[in-house]
Write a structure and sequence with these properties.
Layout (H helix, E strand, L loop, with lengths): L3 H9 L3 E6 L6 E8 L4 E7 L2 H4 L2 H14 L17 E3 L2 E7 L5 E2 L4 H13 L17 H13 L5 H10 L3 H16 L10 E3 L7 E4 L3 E4 L6 E3 L2 H4 L6 H11 L6 H25 L7 H9 L12
Antiparallel strand pairs: 1-2, 2-3, 3-5, 4-5, 6-8, 7-10, 8-9
Length: 307
């Protein structure tokens, strides 16, 4: 078990008086630490392999964005040695300044469109090397875990429950996956697109307060991609597009790139949740995670975007 106070003292030169658990995210343990000066920090401990491999390349881009857009992007904290993460055993630790504001599920989407436009427009000023994201990156792992989930591969009660609850959606999963593969195969026939700095899960990581406006947090996969990587979830939101175009100009809606981004992100979610389910200790209750997975098939918030 990682001692957050010790990590902050040894690696960040931050003396801590209190550490409290924050709401656990899908891919990390999260904590709020208070220093002797009264400053507060948001600490993430990530053990999921898909995210651990992304942190070293994502965090420098996140830091560069925070310098350019301090009012719009959460602020990572560097270690004593100037790094943006700490590797400990099977985990990676990252630290950001804590913003005392709620996570928003509803907000002014025109305002948020302008924020995303500012982030995309900042691309020429980012000198940090960032990975490029175009296709889904984990086909073999996804197919392996889907087979385990749908076929069942053990007698544990949670596995039996998972297989039974997923059974009605097997055909949907196969159809969605074939659609993803078809979109990827059609990429060579599509016109070139701009590569911009993107968040990758922008719609669900918005915090805000009356004095600070909206900020975008949780930059686990900061990368260069087509703008649609951040736009797909807003494709039917006229107010978002109005705000976005106020900043970037008359950007066209590209149905192909929106669909590719949608299906790629959809299967990212499926893979991450399945991985979490199968990597949990044997004695952990998986009910909430199974419910989360089922929401991706049963009229969840992604469904309207899958065509």
């Amino acid at each position: 078990m990682i001692d957050v106070a010790t990590v902050l003292h040894q690696h960040y030169a931050i003396a801590v008086t209190a550490v409290t658990e924050a709401a656990r995210g899908l891919v990390a343990e999260t904590f709020i630490a208070t220093s002797t000066s009264g400053a507060r920090y948001f600490v993430k401990i990530t053990r999921m392999p898909f995210f651990k491999c992304r942190i070293p390349t994502s965090m420098p881009g996140h830091a560069a964005l925070a310098q350019l857009l301090p009012d719009a992007v959460s602020h990572p904290v560097a270690t004593r040695s100037g790094q943006w993460h700490v590797a400990l055993a099977d985990a990676m630790v990252t630290v950001c300044d804590f913003v005392d504001a709620p996570l928003y599920e509803t907000y002014d989407t025109a305002h948020f469109g302008r924020l995303i436009g500012r982030i995309h427009n900042s691309t020429p000023a980012i000198a940090i090397h960032l990975p490029r994201v175009q296709f889904f990156c984990h086909h073999a792992q996804l197919k392996h875990l889907l087979k385990r989930a749908f076929d069942g591969d053990g007698t544990a009660p949670w596995q039996t429950t998972l297989t039974a609850r997923l059974a009605p959606y097997r055909a949907d999963a196969a159809r969605y996956y074939q659609r993803l593969c078809d979109l990827e195969h059609a990429a060579a026939q599509q016109p070139a697109h701009p590569w911009v700095v993107t968040h990758g899960d922008a719609g669900g990581n918005v915090i805000g307060s009356a004095h600070q406006g909206l900020m975008l947090v949780d930059w686990d996969y900061c990368a260069l991609a087509a703008p649609e990587r951040d736009l797909w979830v807003f494709q039917y939101d006229a107010e978002f597009w109005r705000g976005y175009r106020e900043v970037v100009g008359d950007y066209p809606i590209d149905p192909y790139r929106l669909q590719l981004a949608t299906y790629r992100q959809y299967f990212d979610y499926v893979l991450f949740i399945l991985s979490e389910i199968y990597l949990m200790p044997a004695d952990r209750d998986r009910t909430a995670m199974i419910d989360n997975l089922l929401s991706l098939f049963a009229d969840g918030w992604v469904q309207p975007h899958l065509v």
